[in-house]
Amino acid sequence: MAVGFLGPPLQDFGAVPLRLLGWPPQNPQTRGFVPGGVFLPPCRGGTRPALGAAGGLAGARQRPWGRARTFWGRSITFWGRASTRGAVPGVAADPGVPAPPRPTFTAWCNSHLRKAGTQIENIDEDFRDGLKLMLLLEVISGERLPKPERGKMRVHKINNVNKALDFIASKGVKLVSIGAEEIVDGNAKMTLGMIWTIILRFAIQDISVEETSAKEGLLLWCQRKTAPYKNVNVQNFHISWKDGLAFNALIHRHRPELIEYDKLRKDDPVTNLNNAFEVAEKYLDIPKMLDAEDIVNTARPDEKAIMTYVSSFYHAFSGAQKAETAANRICKVLAVNQENEHLMEDYEKLASDLLEWIRRTIPWLEDRSPQKTIQEMQQKLEDFRDYRRVHKPPKVQEKCQLEINFNTLQTKLRLSNRPAFMPSEGRMVADINNGWQHLEQAEKGYEEWLLNEIRRLERLDHLAEKFRQKASIHEAWTEGKEAMLKQKDYESATLSDIKALIRKHEAFESDLAAHQDRVEQIAAIAQELNELDYYDSPSVNARCQKICDQWDVLGSLTHSRREALEKTEKQLETIDELHLEYAKRAAPFNNWMESAMEDLQDMFIVHTIEEIEGLIAAHDQFKSTLPDADKEREAILGIQREAQRIADFNSIKLGGNNPYTSVTPQIINSKWERVQQLVPKRDHALLDEQSKQQSNEHLRRQFASQANIVGPWIQTKMEEIGRISIEMNGTLEDQLNHLKQYEQSIVDYKPNIDLLEQQHQLIQEALIFDNKHTNYTMEHIRVGWEQLLTTIARTINEVENQILTRDAKGISQEQMQEFRASFNHFDKDHGGALGPEEFKACLISLGYDVENDRQKRTGSTDADDFRALLISAGCSLVTLSALFSLLFPPPPVPFWSSSHRCEPPGLGEGAGGHKETPPEPKTGAGLSLQPGDSVVGGGGAP
């Protein structure tokens, strides 16, 4: 048997799956495995025990002399952090691990030793002599052990302990690594391991539920017993019991009177645990083996301790359950006998009552005494229905229940091996069925007789009622019909009214024809009642005669009214045709007048003289159509007068307005007068607007005339300034004087701009928004004027800077001419500035070596072409002054840029009227470039 296992050898249980042992090894490379999932922990020497022929372990361990032991590392142990969480009975214990709580095992031992009148105090010491150990085994096994030795010597103690160990081994348990010497020496771990082995063998191994192992069987038993309880979910023997509810649920399931489970709280585990321990000790004779504080304050309570304590509940309740089962069986037999006797008595009573009711009911159903009136027969029928509805259903249920009870009783007697039940004479099921069949036959005959009698009497009542209903309906229909046929409402009706009256009269004639059948039916029913000698025939005959006489009168009046309606219809058709003609012509004319009034009152918005002249022409054309419109008006009014003349001649009362139109002659005349009033008002409004547009047109032409002069003048001056700035004739001073003369001529032109502003103000006040006579707007003129002033000022400033540069560097007039000629040559667009490529070409044409010059001035060898410098600096244009600054660099001065155009410093306030603040100064000699800067020259004074 392998070290580290508890209980019987492996061959007793077959291969032990790792899932039951609860030991997944940390490193499979250093652990031993065999097929089927059996775990073989390696021994210290590096060898593994061999498997026996039956699947066990042979030669697992050769125990050396003395205290030396071989432990298999972290093998499958039975307590501590590496304990076998699912140790099965028959697997031995490894003593080289921490011991479980002593109080639990001590309490368990004392719970059995007290039956022999003794107990232990210290589990490590009190079993050393083997006497109480042997006594414990005798109590829990119920068997006698060999007589112990009473000596006090060590050998006597060892012999007594060996007798106990031999007895344990005789029960199929091999105690590997546990010897008598360790117990006698007081080895706590060995002693506790031995006690746990005894608990597994004698307290837990015999627990089996549905062929499960001992531990699983005990767990399954706990789960089934605690399943109905809330907040209880037993899945193991450690944390599932921490809140104490599972212990209380076990007690309450078997002894509900001991615990008020509903009052327990899940958040008070200490109280729950102590309550269960105290109740178990007081009422169930189960000693307190656990400490509530230890369980609550431990993350994972000791599994072996809880299993030991729970097994005590299992054994305590299993004995009581057996006694209760036997008592229940006896009570069940007595209850079955009493129930059978009760069923027999019930059958006899129900059978007697049912047969007596059948004997009383059959004579009543066989009575066939006829009745004279339908009411009396209906009362008999109601009594019969009441019998069917109220009296018979309970008896049907009694009969069914009687048969059910009889069959149930016979079945129970047969299952109990008792003789069959025999009812008394005349109360057999067959007797009851015969009586019930006779009752059903009498009931069927009585029902047929009742229905036939009722049908016979109902026939007469039905005919009389049918006569009364048809007569009442006919009389209700004829009521007021004579007065309707005699009225002369057609004399004041219109054509549509008369046609409606004719259609209504035709509908009445159809209705009259339909009622002919009803009159004939009334006469036929009266004849049948007379033939059947109905008791109230005189009143029926009188009523029938009255109906026939009235019917003849209605026929005569109907014919007279039709003739009068048709005559009136012909007279109104002529008038209606005139009304229709009037409506057809009046509606378009009315719409024309309404449209004319809308047009005459419509507000017009025009912006040009052409638009107002178009409106005046359209208005004149409208006025030319008025004579024809007046003739149409007279023709329409003549139609209405003709219709009125015909109505007066035939004494026909026209019902007011024309039915085809709401446009009356009064409306036509009123709107015509309104049109006549609006025409001259429209004339005055159009003439006023024409005068206004003529004035606006004069303002447009006046502004356009001046703008068409000022605009080209500004463009011409801009071109002349550009030409002067690049001309080569004369000196810079001559060029400067020429530019200043241009500047003075520009300033002298300012009154023309002011005049144009005044004219623009008049246009704005007149709300004139466009001018087709010129492409120049005041905004264009203003922008051009500002650009002209800025350009002349900037050009003068550039020439002044060139003069300063020339004087400061001693440049001759010929050199200046050369520089300017080269600059003008590459300034293809005459914009006064060069791009990077043009600037580089200009420098090369002047013989200027940028790289050598920079090395010469700075001593640097890291030079680049000037185009790269311009691009890295973010410049796009270079002026002539900037060219001078590069060729003749001044001392370092601050640089600044404006719109990517390289300008010389010192520009100051330009013509634009604002002063730009230069950026922070850059270091360098001659030329300094930074990203975002412009290339500038040193055109200022040294």
Automatic annotation (TrEMBL):
Q: Which residues form the signal peptide?
A: none
Arranged from A to Z, the UniProt key words for this protein are: Actin-binding, Calcium, Coiled coil, Metal-binding, Repeat
Occurrences of domain Calponin-homology (CH) (ranges)? 99-203, 212-318
**UniProt domain EF-hand: residue ranges:** 814-849
A molecular function (GO) term: chromatin DNA binding
Q: Which SMART domains match?
A: CH, EFh, SPEC
Report the CDD domains cross-referenced here: CH_ACTN_rpt1, CH_ACTN_rpt2, SPEC
Biological process terms in GO annotation: negative regulation of substrate adhesion-dependent cell spreading; peroxisome proliferator activated receptor signaling pathway; positive regulation of cell migration; positive regulation of non-canonical NF-kappaB signal transduction; positive regulation of transcription by RNA polymerase II; retinoic acid receptor signaling pathway; tumor necrosis factor-mediated signaling pathway; vesicle transport along actin filament
Tell me the SUPFAM superfamilies matching this sequence. Calponin-homology domain, CH-domain (SSF47576), EF-hand (SSF47473), Spectrin repeat (SSF46966)
**Which InterPro entries does the UniProt record give?**
Actinin_actin-bd_CS, CH_dom, CH_dom_sf, EF-hand-dom_pair, EF_Hand_1_Ca_BS, EF_hand_dom, Spectrin/alpha-actinin, Spectrin_repeat
The record's listing under PROSITE patterns reads:
ACTININ_2 (PS00020), CH (PS50021), EF_HAND_1 (PS00018), EF_HAND_2 (PS50222)
Coiled-coil spans in chain: 498-532
A GO cellular component annotation here is:
nucleus
List the Pfam families. CH, Spectrin
Q: Where is this region: Disordered?
A: 899-942
UniProt name for this protein:
Actinin alpha 4
Annotated organism of origin: Anas platyrhynchos platyrhynchos (Northern mallard)
Name of the encoding gene: ACTN4
